[in-house]
Amino acid sequence: MPIASPRERITLIEPSLGVWMMVFLSFGSGIFLSIVLFILARQFRSRPLALTGVAALLLGLGGAVALTLFESEADRVKQVVQDLALAVGSNDIAKAQSFVSSSSPECHEDIGREMKKYEFDWCRVNSWDGVEFDPNNPNLAVATFTVWVHVRLIDAGVSYDGNATQEVRLWFRKEGEDNWKLYGYGHRRPSSGGWPDTPPNGMIGGYYP
């Protein structure tokens, strides 16, 4: 899994090995079935079998293409996460807010308010729990992952300066073609319980680390 550097933009993440295996199996099965049908069609001089072979080949190819397209949506969400991590690590509030949906002004304000409490040396995506799409609305997605940061904060009498790991959840909405925008977020210490149903827009359960 690529790690976001504070000084460089990560290129689009490649589909996982599992997805490529599914693509290979889908396409390979279609080719195998079509070859068998073409041989039978030639042997028995059957036009319907030949047409079925063409259909099998197209079906396998279509399934392979569909799998790569579906995975690319998850990759696009992950790319936004990597770009957002870069903005946070650079303390670029305006850039971080640019990933927020215009229909979520409260999320926009909360990011600005919270980032002013911290000063980051870097912010890196350390591991992924995954990207989940709403089964009833594929234009909604939730990304859950872990970040590693070096952060300084002084807030409400609490000070901290050092490395920290945070579990992060981001709520996304697709606006236009290939344009995933943030409408909610939350972060907390790793493995500290379940996530709320709605975006908390801030830290859950205390301060760093």
Q: What labels would you give this structure?
A:
alpha+beta; 42% helix; 5-stranded mixed sheet; Nuclear Transport Factor 2, Chain: A; 2 domains; 209 residues; disordered N terminus; 4 helices
Task: Describe the overall structure.
With 209 residues, this protein is an alpha+beta fold. The chain folds into two domains: 17-74; 77-203, Nuclear Transport Factor 2, Chain: A. Helix content is 42%, strand content 31%. The chain contains four helices and five strands, in the order ααααβββββ. Strands 1-2-3-4-5 form a five-stranded mixed sheet. Strand 1 and strand 2 (137-155) form a beta hairpin. Helix 1 packs antiparallel against helix 2 (47-89). The model is unreliable at 1-15 (pLDDT under 50).
